[in-house]
């Protein structure tokens, strides 16, 4: 790994690497990043394709030209911003607007412009995607220049037989985990039921809100108290960059993913799920290696599987 990703991440993670390693500093950095960055070394979902909800084709970015420190003299990405951003309270102003004076790399009023990866570079007045080139400039459909923060609640339960006992996969001998998954309206892919963190909102509130909005139309009924308690005791799985198809050179997605596991299946695990808000469909989905999910969600779910020692 090279470039700003490695440099900023190594600074950010130096305390995590531990003093007992016998490898070089670079080896320690790479090993540490492999533990906390879920399968992302060179983003791929935001390269070499048509930008979502548009006919704008990204400028080609081969693997050897992803990082900003790698020379790419012919790089001429098109500029694209969706008309949907105009006049929206949740969107930044145009980067050239004289009244737009963002505080990069810090909390800007209620807007969090701090990246989980570390300090990002500002070039030509625009934030630079720390994971490298994407083949397109501007914000695309993302509201914020720089990091756009989301929260992803990975809600899980064990798959049970008719007797209420966990089902074991015959190949691995491990219990089969199920996750609450939604089918996204915008692309038809299955995903974790997450969403954007509103300015000034606590991530814990976003996690609960997004799960209820996208799976139960916010209707927990008489179990509201149990649901509140359930979402107060999650385990953080990942915090960082997301290889999202909406990313650009100047705007990108980051997330906090938290696992909420219903061990007995008696709280949210017994809800009859129905789609709401941005979801077309919602269901309890068996988790396994063959499951393909939106953006980097499969990598995040794999971390939950490893933590719970479930089948993959």
Description of the structure:
With 312 residues, this protein is an alpha+beta fold. The chain has a single domain, classed as Nucleoside Triphosphate Pyrophosphohydrolase (Alpha-Beta Complex). Helices cover 18% and strands 21% of the residues. It has five helices and 13 strands. The strands form four sheets. Strands 7, 8, 9, 10, 11, 12 and 13 form a seven-stranded mixed sheet that branches. A two-stranded parallel sheet has the order 1-6. Helix 1 crosses helix 2. The two termini are 27 Å apart. The N terminus is likely disordered.
Summary tags:
312 residues, alpha+beta, 5 helices, single chain, 18% helix, 21% strand, Nucleoside Triphosphate Pyrophosphohydrolase, two-stranded parallel sheet, seven-stranded mixed sheet
A few lines on this structure:
The longest helix has 13 residues, at 203-215. The protein has helices at 3-13, 25-36, 203-215, 224-230, 297-308, and strands at 79-81, 107-108, 111-112, 122-123, 126-127, 137-140, 146-158, 177-184, 190-191, 195-196, 235-241, 251-262, 279-286.
Category from helices, strands and their pairing: alpha+beta
Low-confidence stretches: 1-36
**Level-2 CATH architecture:** Alpha-Beta Complex
Radius of gyration: 20 Å
Task: Look at the structure and give the CATH class.
Answer: Alpha Beta
Mean pLDDT: 84
User: What is the molecular shape?
Assistant: globular
Hey, roughly how much beta strand do the residues contain?
15-25%
Largest sheet: 7 strands, mixed
Q: Provide the helix percentage.
A: 10-25%
The count of helical stretches stands at 5
Number of domains: 1
Any idea what the CATH superfamily is called? Nucleoside Triphosphate Pyrophosphohydrolase
Number of strands: 13
Would you tell me which CATH topology applies?
Nucleoside Triphosphate Pyrophosphohydrolase
How far apart the termini lie comes to 27 Å
The H-and-E topology, N to C, reads as HHEEEEEEEEEEHHEEEH
